[in-house]
């Protein structure tokens, strides 16, 4: 069975609640989502309630995502947000291990594994981020780095929970305005490595886990990534911060995905 096309945007530390709700409404009115596509947005925590109100009761055609969550159920963790809080808002998906969480906020593999397991244990979906830094790439340890992040991050995940797991491969050197955009030739070997590792860890069910690429994706290059055999979707930042950019990048990526599946089929 062909894997779905999975696409969405991380708004990072941008937008007020009213801005995110307006974005959601305009997006919902302007995007068509076929059966084989999944679409998500990651507004900041402070916008989730406003977007949740605009989306209404689930199941949601556009998944409402949180950019982070804490693993403990409750307690003395000032400034943190629990899965119970997110579930009460109707959140569908939690981003765990984004490059900025790993590097700017120093989240370690073991802590991210606790988060992945907490998200899945709460019945939600996760988008789990992996990717090497420029320095790690320079030392020739991209593969080792990503495999370590993947194996520790998914350690102890029940194979029955895998249908709620998505992986985002985002080389840190390719993310953001200061990044050097990765090319399809950079990305496919890493996506294939991740696919094989998921197969080794979990068997056939592991190979069905969607792998997204992220880092300087825009409408002009989106299809070059989604046409790759092991890339099933895209996690975008900047190009998904306007509804027009979101829809244009989504459609370009969907066209690449269709092309790849026609070739495979
Ligand atoms: P970018 O961000 O698309 O702006 O490079 C990607 C990300 O941080 O996921």
Summarize the structure.
With 265 residues, the protein is an alpha/beta fold. The protein has helices at 17-30, 45-55, 83-89, 99-103, 109-121, 134-138, 142-153, 184-202, 204-207, 222-226, 243-264; strands spanning 5-10, 37-42, 62-66, 93-96, 125-130, 165-169, 211-214, 233-236.
Structure description:
This protein has 265 residues and is of the alpha/beta class. The chain has one domain: TIM Barrel (Alpha-Beta Barrel), CATH 3.20.20. Helices cover 44% and strands 15% of the residues. The chain contains eleven helices and eight strands. An eight-stranded parallel β-barrel has the order 1-2-3-4-5-6-7-8, surrounded by five helices. It is globular. The termini are close together. The model has no long low-confidence stretch (mean pLDDT 97). The site of 2-phosphoglycolic acid has 14 residues, from strand 8.
Features:
TIM Barrel; about 15% strand; binds 2-phosphoglycolic acid; 11 helices; eight-stranded parallel beta barrel; single chain; alpha/beta; about 260 residues
Percent helix among the residues? 40-55%
Fourth-level CATH superfamily: Aldolase class I
Name the overall outline.
globular
Low-confidence stretches: none
Number of helices: 11
**How big is the Rg?**
17 Å
**N- to C-terminal distance:** 10 Å
Order of helices and strands: EHEHEHEHHEHHEHHEHEH
Name the CATH architecture. Alpha-Beta Barrel
User: What fold name goes in the CATH topology slot?
Assistant: TIM Barrel
Per DSSP, what share of the residues sits in E-state strands of 2 or more residues?
A: 15-25%
What about the largest sheet?
Answer: 8 strands, parallel, barrel
Number of structurally distinct domains? 1
Mean pLDDT across the residues is: 97
Hetero compounds: 2-phosphoglycolic acid
Strand order of the biggest β-sheet: 1-2-3-4-5-6-7-8
By secondary-structure content and strand pairing, the structural class works out as alpha/beta
The CATH class is identified as Alpha Beta
Number of extended strands? 8
């Amino acid at each position: 069975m062909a894997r779905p096309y999975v696409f969405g945007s991380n708004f990072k530390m941008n937008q007020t609640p009213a801005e995110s709700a307006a974005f959601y409404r305009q997006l919902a009115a302007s995007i068509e989502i076929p059966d084989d596509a999944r679409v998500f947005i990651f507004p900041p925590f402070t916008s989730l309630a406003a977007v949740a109100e605009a989306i209404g009761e689930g199941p949601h055609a556009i998944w409402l995502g949180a950019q982070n969550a804490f693993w403990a159920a409750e307690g003395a963790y000032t400034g943190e947000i629990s899965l119970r809080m997110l579930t009460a808002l109707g959140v569908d998906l939690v981003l765990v291990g984004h490059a900025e969480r790993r590097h700017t906020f120093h989240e370690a593999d073991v802590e991210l594994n606790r988060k992945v397991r907490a998200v899945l244990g709460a019945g939600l979906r996760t988008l789990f981020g992996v990717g090497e830094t420029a320095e790690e790439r320079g030392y020739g340890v991209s593969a080792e780095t990503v495999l370590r992040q993947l194996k520790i991050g998914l350690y102890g995940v029940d194979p029955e929970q895998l249908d709620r797991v998505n992986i985002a491969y985002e080389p840190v050197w390719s993310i953001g305005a200061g990044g050097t955009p990765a090319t399809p030739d950079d990305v496919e070997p890493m996506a294939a490595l991740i696919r094989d590792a998921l197969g080794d860890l979990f068997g056939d069910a592991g190979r069905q886990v969607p792998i997204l690429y992220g880092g300087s994706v825009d409408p002009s290059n989106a299809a070059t990534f989604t046409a790759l055999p092991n890339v099933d979707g895209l996690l975008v930042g900047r190009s998904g911060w306007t509804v027009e950019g979101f829809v244009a990048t989504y459609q370009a990526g969907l066209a690449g995905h269709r092309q790849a599946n026609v070739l495979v089929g």
